[in-house]
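BUG: 3D viewer hangs when loading the predicted structure for this chain

Environment: internal workstation, default settings.
Expected: structure renders.
Actual: progress bar stalls at 90%.

Input used:
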Amino acid sequence: MAQQQIEITLHPNGVAAPAQHAAAICREIIDFYFDALARADLGKQPPPHDTFFRYNVHGPNLSEAERRVLHENWILAKVFQDLMRGVRASLEEAYFFIELLSLGKLRAKSDSTLDDLLAPFRLSAAKKKFPPLLEHVNSKLEKPLEFLDAYQSMQDARNCLEHRRGIVSKSDARKDDIMELRFPRVKMYLIDKEEEKELQRDMFVEKATQIFMRLDVRIRQFKPGERIAITPTDFNEVAFACHLFGSQLAERLPKAPSR
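Structure tokens produced before the viewer hung:
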């Protein structure tokens, strides 16, 4: 009996998709809900929904400021968690892409499904912790990604928001008694008398001035006892870092050999 062959097409865009989708959705959530919180009267509890029967559950009496911090921390912890899940998923897809590409051909039993065939690769990626997974993928890319610091920053922020209500503890402060968050960003700047000046809101710029862009790192530092205060503007840069990660990961994947 002649052997049957099935061709599997690998799309780099499928590698980028999880991180980019998470970045877009999480940024939208931050924009919507931080805007709603800014306009809401948080000095009192919200009115109950019109239900037939409602349990009356009492909690602590919160001030407007305390309730705002509580809600912001909850939202931020959730979006950081979803961002990391999206980044992790893209990295697993890259691992899967690279391993299949390196093998070229696979043999399978006639009664196997495609999921059966691909399951060992999925399982191998899922078992790896993030640093070894990133290291393995980086070793196969055309140019390594520098993302471990950003991922660790998101992990640190999520842990602090989720477990310590956003208040930095000594266990969060890893260096010089300071907790440092680092995120890639796009820096826009101009050159004035050989000096680099970053563009700011309402900054006057002469007509025909040349504007430059480059990737940079935003560093936020917090001391023990301080609250991690992350604004929607800050989170826009965090989400950009994750979207950029997906794009660069897809662009730097190894190419299939020409036939």
